[in-house]
Each structure stands twice: as C-alpha cells, then as structure tokens.
C-alpha cells in the first residue's frame, strides 16, 4: 500500500507539478520515486539537470531503476544537445540493456521502449527500433497499461501510413487524457496537430489548446518549437 506522501507525489507528477511532487515526497521519501520525478522534470522542462543527476546518483548504482534513469539522462543530453558527453550514447545503451536483463517485466518493457527511442531518434535506425517498440507494446498490452501504451504508440505512429498514424496519435492522446496525465496529453496534442493538414479545423483547435498548457508547465521542447 502506498504511503500518503508517495500517493500525493505520484498524482502531482502525473499533473506535471514536479516541484510540488518533490516537496510532497520530502527528503526522506522513496529515493527511486524522487529520482524518477526529478528526471521527468528535467526531460519536460529541460531544466534541473544537476538535481536529477544527484537524485539518480543517490540510488544503488546496480539497481535496474538506476540503470534506466542513468540511460535516460544520457539520452536526453544527446536529444536536447545540452552539454552532451562523449560517452552518452554508450552509457544510454548500456543502461537500457542492463534494465532489459533485470528480470522485472514492467521495467524491461520501459527499457525496450527507451532503447527503441534511442535507436530511432539518435541513431536514425528505424529498422533496429521497430522490433523493440513492438516488444514494449506487447508488454504494455498484456499488462493493460494504457499509460505505457500511450508512449509506445506515440513513437510507433510516425512509421505508419497516414490513416493509421493519425489513429494511433489520437489513441495516445485519449489514453493520456483519460488518465489525467497532463504534460503527456499536452505533448500528444502538439504532435497530433503537427500531423494534421494546415487547413484542418482540428489542428487549429489543438494548437490553441496545447500552447497555454505548455507555457504553464514550462515544457521546454514544446515552447522552443513555437
């Protein structure tokens, strides 16, 4: 059973209130959750990298969560070109591989997904990425994890034909909205808008809707695209 502080922190994280989530968790709160929230805050806001790295460094370095979060930090430095390190590509893949081999099925699914994104976005290797996306999607579907599914199909969609692509992007948005995952829903609105024709009224509505939310939550990579 979750403690009250952990429950509140997770709900605030889902809303994109990362600072409040960390405050609710407190200094003695669950260290893995603290690190996860700090990494999420860095990824969405593109700020607070030092705090995120410290939170990850406080974990047992041999733990699957530490491997996964260390890899995510390395990947995001490459993606955002924010002080990337010479070994970030190798660190990211090594961390994902270790998490895949951890024996934790849910964590394996997330590691497969993140590994696919690394191959897709950094290496521009869709042939290598697609099987890992499919493995992750199988795990998400089997477990009924709609939140996880929303992430996978968001990244699978660009590899599909237009009609299927739009359907997958809409499903990703609907899953996130139903779960109250606000920053993820805002990102899904932006991506769906970007894939609709410029004269589509739905596109105009999505553009008007996601921008205020991105500004309020300081989602750095969405604001930089305006």
Report on the structure:
The mean pLDDT is 96. This protein has 226 residues and is mostly helical. Helix content is 77%, strand content 0%. It contains 13 helices and no strands.
**Strand-and-helix sequence, N→C?**
HHHHHHHHHHHHH
Number of strands: 0
Largest sheet: none
Low-confidence stretches: none
From the spread of the alpha carbons, the general shape counts as: globular
Q: Nutshell version of this structure?
A:
This protein is mainly alpha-helical.
Please supply descriptive tags for the structure shown above.
226 residues; mainly alpha
List the topology elements.
Blueprint: H1 4-14, H2 18-25, H3 31-45, H4 49-57, H5 64-80, H6 88-100, H7 105-122, H8 126-143, H9 146-156, H10 162-179, H11 182-195, H12 201-217, H13 220-223
Helix pairs in contact: 1-2, 2-3, 3-4, 3-5, 4-5, 5-6, 5-7, 6-7, 7-8, 8-9, 9-10, 10-11, 11-12
């Amino acid at each position: 059973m979750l403690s009250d502080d952990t429950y509140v922190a997770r709900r605030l994280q889902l809303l994109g209130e990362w600072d409040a989530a960390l405050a609710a968790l407190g200094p003695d709160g669950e260290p893995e959750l603290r690190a996860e929230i700090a990494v999420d805050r860095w990824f969405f806001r593109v700020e607070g990298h030092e705090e995120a790295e410290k939170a990850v460094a406080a974990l047992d370095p041999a733990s699957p969560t530490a491997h996964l979060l260390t890899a995510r930090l390395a990947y995001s430095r490459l993606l955002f070109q924010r002080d990337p390190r010479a070994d970030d590509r190798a660190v990211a893949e090594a961390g994902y591989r270790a998490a895949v081999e951890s024996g934790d099925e849910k964590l394996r699914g997330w590691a497969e997904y993140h590994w696919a994104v690394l191959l897709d976005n950094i290496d521009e290797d869709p042939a290598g990425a697609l099987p890992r996306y499919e493995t992750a999607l199988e795990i998400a579907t089997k477990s009924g994890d709609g939140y996880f599914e929303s992430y996978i199909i968001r990244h699978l969609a660009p590899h599909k034909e237009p009609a299927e692509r739009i359907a997958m992007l809409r499903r990703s948005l609907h899953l996130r909205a139903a779960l109250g995952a606000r920053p993820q829903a805002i990102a899904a609105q932006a991506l769906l808008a970007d894939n609709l024709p410029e004269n589509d009224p739905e596109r105009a509505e999505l553009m008007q809707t996601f921008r205020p939310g991105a500004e309020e939550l300081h989602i750095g990579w969405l604001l930089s695209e305006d």
